[in-house]
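Provenance and format

Records in this collection were gathered into a single text stream. Each protein contributes a sequence line and a C-alpha cell line. The two records reproduced below are adjacent in the stream.
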Amino acid sequence: MEKGLVIINTGDGKGKSTAAFGTAFRALGHGYKVCVIQFIKSPSDYGEILSAKKFEDLEWHTEGRGFTWNSDDLEKDKAVARKGFELAKEKINSDKYDLIILDEITYLTNYKFIDIEELLTILNNKPDRLNIILTGRDADSKLIEIADTVTEMKKIKHCFDDGIKAKKGIEF
C-alpha cells in the first residue's frame, strides 16, 4: 500500500481550488473514490458542483454560508464551519476514499473557527493510504511543516484588479 500524501495549495493567486479539482479529475480517471468538502462557499450553481453530479465516485459537500470576509454573522459562519469540519473528520476516519479535498479550509484556522491543533491531529492520524489536499490562503506554518507537498500560488496580475467581474466557467 502506498503512503497517502498531504498536499497544500496556498497563496494569494488564483488556482488553488482549481488545481485540487484537477487532481480530483485525475484520481477519478483511475477509478479512485473522491470526496470534496468546500468550506466558505455556500451551495449554488458553481461549475464544479454541476460537474460533480456527473461522477459516480465523487462525493461533494458544500459546507459554508458564503464568503466570510463579507459576513453578516460570524457566529453563524463559525457554527456552519464547525459542522463541516465534523463532516470532514467523519469522512477522513471512514477510510472509504482515496482522495479527500478540504477546499478553503485554511480560512477556518485563520479565523479561529477551528483549532489548528485539532486539524493537525486529524491529518497526522489519517488512514495511511489516504491522500488529502487542503486549499486556501495563508496556510499555517504548522500545516506546511507536516505536508508532503506545498504549492504557493502567487498573484502576478488578476483581471479583478482591472474591474473585470468573475466569469462563469472560469471563476465559478
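Adjacent record:
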Amino acid sequence: MNKSNLTKQELSLELSRKLGFPLSFSRKLINDLVNIFISNIRKGNLKIKNIGSFKILKKNQRLGRNPKTKEQYIISSRNSLSFSSSKNLIASLDQNE
C-alpha cells in the first residue's frame, strides 16, 4: 500500500488480509474506530499517545476574493480540524528513511 490517499474500504481490506479477520468484521472495526474519533473530537481535543492530537479550530466569517476576477464574496464561518503529530511519530518516520 503505497498510495497517498487511503479509503476506509482499502484499509478494511488490508486489515482483513494481514490479520485474517473477515472483511465484514474489519469494516465494522474501521467504522467504529472512526466514529470513536469523531465523537471524542466533538467533545474537545483528542490526544492519541505517540501519534498526535486533533483540535477543532473555529473559523470566523470573512471576506474572500476571486484572484482571477477580483470579485468579492463572503466566506461563511465554519469549524476546521487541525492535527499536530507527536515527536515520537516524527522520530519513527525519520528513522525509517
